[in-house]
Design brief:
Largest sheet: none
Shape: globular
Amino acid sequence: MLPLLTLAGGISLKLATGASLVHVLVAAAAGTLSHFRAGMVDVKASFILGIAGIAGGLLGSFFSVPMSTHILNLIFLFLVISAIFLLFIPIRSNNETYRRGGNRIVGILIGLGCGLLNGLLGVGGGFILIPLMVYILRIPLRVTIGTSLMIIMISSLGTFGAKYGVGHIHLMITLLVTSGSVLGALLGGYVSRKTHIEHLRLILISLLSLIFISVAYKTFF
């Protein structure tokens, strides 16, 4: 969403981060409901990471105010390429050994970091959150997708207030951006449950690669 708003829409990055944040919040809420009904949400882990994400999001929102667009783009690119690298690591099935809730301390640290990204860039952090949950917290990919949506929803609630307070929420832009969020999130939840895990991983890598190329082009050319 963020690259589309800045590249195709010509919207300033700071207003785009605000609109993107609200879009993420609405889409995450709808997606969480869809995955929860299918039993694919770890509620305990969601609250641990999500509440930590609120603290990180508040810090990120205020840190973003003095930062230039170029610096924010560089941070975004670094995170996207990191997520792509992690997703190339083969996923080992751990459905039988996984215990809901995971490691609390590690979960809090991941939640803080992804919340910080949410506040800085207005992105849900899912593109880096999902690989961290899969490879560090060892949560099965299907559960990770649903759980990450709930985490993003919780952390975005706290970040929204901070973004509004610093003037990064434009009502008209936000309404236009969020108009299709609910339908898209519900459809995405259905498709993800019907798609093979390896195909999901390849889809994520492909989407992140396209985002990286488009933002890199705008940043350096």
